[in-house]
Amino acid sequence: MSIVANKKAFHDYFIEEKLEAGIALEGWEVKAIRAGRASIKESYVVIRDGEVFLFGMHITPLLAASSHVKPDPVRTRRLLLHSKQISKLIGQVERAGYTLLPLDLHFQRGRIKVEIGLAKGKKQHDKREAEKERDWVREKARLMRVKV
């Protein structure tokens, strides 16, 4: 079940490969995400010292959060992946010029997971071509409904 999706990533990038990762969260963050107060629109993934981190994910704290906790809505969060997966990502990002982006935040068996994508940037003409293709598919579906 998806909590929040990054639709902008599909518009700006070609997604080559998808990978699911755990995310290290604090208690107040889990409660806020369950309440639907998260955004991954402007976030990105970086690999540093053999670890994977999520930057720019915004989680708005709940008003009923504990008073002894000082919430930081945009703190850097660590992603949990196997070492083989991390080494594969390091090779592809450094050698092939790919970018890592969060695509989706979802629940899996009660845990919050993030789907990250290995992406290559689109040029402006690629974005226009994708938009034309989407419009044509939508128009074709509309015409098929009218004829039936």
From TrEMBL:
Keyword terms: Cytoplasm, RNA-binding
Subcellular location: Cytoplasm
One Gene Ontology cellular component: cytosol
Entry-linked InterPro entries: SmpB, SsrA-bd_prot, SsrA-bd_prot_CS
Entry GO MF terms: RNA binding
PROSITE patterns the UniProt entry points to: SSRP
Family in the record: Belongs to the SmpB family.
Record's protein name: SsrA-binding protein
Organism: Candidatus Accumulibacter proximus
Lineage: Bacteria, Pseudomonadati, Pseudomonadota, Betaproteobacteria, Candidatus Accumulibacter
Gene that encodes the chain: smpB
